[in-house]
Known about the structure:
Blueprint: H1 3-28, H2 40-55, H3 61-83, H4 99-129
Helix pairs in contact: 1-2, 1-3, 1-4, 2-3, 3-4
Amino acid sequence: MKQNHLLIIASLLSILFMTFHLTQDTLHAKAGNPEGGGSTLVAVPVLVVWLYGTLVLAERRSGHIIMLIGSILAMGMPVIHVMGPRGIFAGEFAKYSGAFLFFWTFFVLGITGMLSFILSVRGLWSLRRGQPR
Length: 133
């Protein structure tokens, strides 16, 4: 399978699991927190740009850059939640119903995000050198 096809698949998976993660954040948010619904105003346009870069601009440098930024976001979600004041190591999340899916989504986001990061960097490198992908 071509490297660019793998990048598209990994990026699409990252987008899918990012929506799962954002949904879980919204479900578990306390009233008045941005995750309780207000962050949707930011998340939806970001995901649309990421999806557009993945599906429409996949063969271009701009598409690779969008997917690179998206992969950094996907890799960052587990890190942000681990380091936060109510982080994973504080034991707060284990109390929630659906904690298994929440943690599993973290692992998948980290894995697909890292794969997308590697493939988008390789794609940008090959575009710079003018090599076929």
